[in-house]
Amino acid sequence: MQVSSFSSQIYLGPHMLSKTAEYALRAVVSMASQYGKPQAADRMAKHTKVPRRYLTRVLQDLAASGLVRSRPGPGGGYELNRPTDEITVLQVINTVSPLRRIDSCTDGLEQFQEMRSLHNELDRAFSATEATFAALTIQSLLENNRLLTPRTPAETPAAGVVSTPSTTAAQPAYVPAPVSAPPMPTPTYPASMTSHTAQKPGTPRMGQVFSRSNYGDRSFLKGSE
Predict the structure, then answer these.
(1) C-alpha distance from residue 194 to each of 184, 203, 208 (Å)
(2) pTM for the full model?
(3) What's the domain range around 14?
(4) What does the radius of gyration of the chain's CA atoms come to, in whole angstroms?
(5) Structural domain total, the chain
(6) What CATH number did the domain enclosing 6 receive?
């Protein structure tokens, strides 16, 4: 029984923070993103994905600690009672679900040096975690979230260039003019091919063809002489 009791103190489970602490941080960050504007509990529950009944209890604990205040009436709701740079993550966690540290080894286990060594390592880990949460403000969470939010290429201006909306109408796509083929050169022939005097009798000139008639094998030249 003593061993199981000791194990329950050192076991952190899959998450170091309780569900209540996580819900409280969601609510505080949501109010910080709309600082100075009270948020209705219904709207906050939808935005933070926290069950409405659970969120009400968390907000009541935050209001009792002075981190949050409520405004009744139309247009009212919950809002932060301090500037975002004056509220730390550790304050929010300790308000609703304080971190549990191991103060000392359970009686009867001092003889197990391995367990005492584990206790010391866990105590150092808890101390480092508390120091990190104490130095982390809600304002820094908002700033880190803005830095981690990706921007599309259209939203990212070039270095040193201030982007302004364009008022120039879209230009039609460029279509090149058709290119005509160059004229073919006129062929030239030697004089011997075009001169009538250089031809032998009966030799057809260019452009003439032979044809056979029904008058035997005699060939006649067709075409102009």
Answers:
(1) 21, 12, 13
(2) 0.56
(3) 2-148
(4) 47
(5) 1
(6) 1.10.10.10
